[in-house]
Amino acid sequence: MRAGLLLAAAVLSACRAEPSRPFPVGLLRPVPPRVAAEAARLGFDVAAAVPDGAVSAYAGAPSHRVGTEVAADWTALRLLSARAVADGARGFYFRLPPAPAGRDHLDYPEELQAPARVLRELQALRPVLEFGADASAPFAAPPGVRARAWHFRGRGYLLLVNDSGDDAAFEGEVFEGLRALFEARSDARRVLTTCGGRFCLPAGRALWLEGRLR
Q1: Could you read off the pLDDT of 38-51 as tens digits, one per residue?
Q2: Residue 109: other Cβ atoms inside 10 A
């Protein structure tokens, strides 16, 4: 987790400031009591209905039942959440697939990993989404790529979402001064694939980027 985001979250928590644009993240009921308690412990909201302006998504694969097959992967679920953010959603919730009778989702932690990871990422970004000022993207995105940018506490933040059917190519220099968030490498050029001397964001992928402190 990037230190800048953690510091910003700590500062805002200490000040108890009211966000100008609340962005709750969490789960939609029905969920078992034990799952609801764990979600609340992690700081996620558990709601009976999607709040105004928020978006919900199913956290399982088609015909999925917990304990019988593998859930939708993290990349697919992150794309759903990133697309919602890029389109201006004011919150994001997952609907969990039903658990087998007598069990709950915490009995199958491997199948909760993907949605939990996406919610943790959004939770870390909430200071930016709730308090950041909308900004222009620092470069033009290729056709088929949605881009949304913010300024927050002296840094720029950028979200790129490629929900087209084709890989999207970027010139490497556009990523100078930007760090990839929630990736194994901070250099965005090492996160992307190479394509014809340029760098491609694969189809169906989202990328969060953070600029240098000004």
Answers
A1: 999 999 999 999 99
A2: 9
